[in-house]
Amino acid sequence: MPAFLSKYHNMDMLKGSLWDKIFVFSLPLAFTSILQQLFNAADVAVLGNFVGNDAVAAVGNNIPIIGLVVNLFVGGSLGANVVVARYLGMKDQKNANDAVHTAFFLALLTGCAIALIGVPFARVFIDMLGVPDNVAGPCEEYLRVYFLGMPFISLYNFEAALFRSKGDTNTPLIALAIASVFNIVGNLVVVLVFDMQTGGVALTTVLSNVLCSGFLFYHLRKDSGFLHISYKRILSCNQRKARAIISIGLPAGIQGMVFSLSNLLIQSAINSLGTDAMAASAAAFTIEINTYCFINAFGLAATTFISQNYGAGNLTRCRQVVHACFWLDFITATVFSAFIIFFVRDLLGFFSNSEAVISLGITRVYLVVLPEVLSVAMEIMSGTMRGFGYSLPPALMTLFGICGVRIIWLFSIFKMYPTYNVLMAVYGISWGVAALLIFIIYVRFMRKIKAQIHSK
User: Fold this and answer.
1) Mean pLDDT of the region 255-281
2) Could you tell me which residues come within 8 angstroms of residue 363 by beta carbon, excluding any fewer than 6 positions away?
3) Rounded CA gap, 36 and 186, in Å?
4) pLDDT at 452
5) Long-range contacts, 327-330 (Cβ 8 Å, 24+)
6) How many C-beta neighbours within 10 Å does residue 312 have?
7) Can you tell me the distance from the alpha carbon of 175 to that of 382, in angstroms, rounded to the nearest whole number?
């Protein structure tokens, strides 16, 4: 590790400067999320350049379904992050280790349950999306294989959250970087050497998830502190801590799933516009989601820093965390969005050489990335409330603001004007509504927190 970063490894979130620590904590998180997206991006790029648009459309149709499940894992892992970080703030390593083992058990249980449901019902999900016949076969093949890897995807997200609770965001990044290289090389091998298509790249992705979750498990086993996983306790579950993890993680998971659920509905509408629209959306999504990775990273930083400081009883520092996270998030998201807008044509060219696909992709990037800055306020406010242990209110506001608005838009405005531009416009509108609703409950929530600060 470089010397200038060494002081941030296992950083002390309870004392000292905040801006530099939050920034250094958040960047690996953002790059970790980007690498996770590269798993699908690598699939899309290889299939788009060496197989064809139908194969790209097949993967694109699966992105919202996969996102729906992965967001459940990410949200659930936030519960583990908050509970473990709070015990660390209290300097209670015994209870922190109990929470670590409980989180590991919940990760295994959740991942296996999703796999058992997803593999046999993959075709049902494909039919629900109304996927065209020329795409349905490879789409089902990709999804069925992908579901086999759900236990390892779940494990990775929970393991990463455990490292994050003590300020270590570098180890999960290293694990995913190794797995991403394996995934890219593996995709090229299965397509060019073994002449496999969607099923082959899905299998490579599964093996990549096995690799990165195994890497983190190895480091959990080696850890000599509260993160140590004991084989004897690997299936142990403390009911009280499980309830705490679920009470925070499940609403956060639902909030993430709401985004993916609304994207499923939008994907159904995209399917009605033809293969070019499907391929363009798949390619554009793999680009635009990277902006959200940075936005979300600072929201996760707010959750972790506030959890530890709330556990230590330092509410004034919690308020300072909110301000630092917001401005760092806003500046970073603005710079990254500008980069994407400026190089949008070149970026889309990595995924398709079709001018029709690139043109539609540019339209989507403009209509999605430009208003995406609204998500900064949403993520910081939601992350703050989760850090204090209040996960349900922002989840409900997201349900109404995101999913509700998009459903209304699809069955009213888009039904009257069924064009690609009109469909893409719903992203910015729904973010604006959701941000307003979350702001209303956030203001009321922070008044209670300020009252606690003044009473100290």
Assistant:
1) 78
2) 280, 420, 421, 424
3) 16
4) 61
5) 328/19, 328/22, 328/23, 328/26, 328/298, 329/26, 329/294, 329/295, 329/297, 329/298, 329/299, 329/376, 329/379, 329/380, 330/373, 330/376
6) 18
7) 27
Whole-number Å distance between alpha carbons of 102 and 98: 6
Q: Are 269 and 414 in contact (CB under 8 A)?
A: yes
State pLDDT tens for residues 107-138: 888 889 888 988 888 787 777 767 667 777 77
| Locus of tokens 């004392």 | 15
257 half-sphere exposure, CB direction, 13 A CA radius: 13
- Cβ neighbours around 213 below 10 Å, total: 25
pLDDT at 170 over 90: no
Contact 441, 397 (CB under 8 A): yes
Q: Which amino acid is at 47?
A: L
Rounded to two decimals, the pTM is 0.74
- Identify the pLDDT of residue 53: 65
Please write down the HEC assignment for all residues of 274-304: CHHHHHHHHHHHHHHHHHHHHHHHHHHHHHH
Secondary structure (DSSP) of 80-98: HHHHHHHHHHTT-HHHHHH
Tell me the CB-side half-sphere exposure of residue 172, using CA atoms within 13 A.
28
- For residue 336, the SS3 value is helix
State the residue for tokens 């002449």: 195
Q: How far, CA to CA in Å, does 344 sit from each of 288, 296, 356?
A: 10, 21, 14
pLDDT tens-digit series, residues 46-55? 766 666 666 6
55-111 tens-digit pLDDT: 666 676 677 677 777 777 777 787 888 788 778 777 777 878 888 888 888 888 888
229: DSSP letter: P
Q: Tell me the C-alpha distance between 21 and 233, whole Å.
A: 33
Tell me the mean pLDDT in the region 300-320.
Answer: 84
Give CA–CA dist 449/426, Å, rounded.
34
Place of tokens 């890897």: 149
Rounded Cα gap, residues 140 and 137, in angstroms: 5
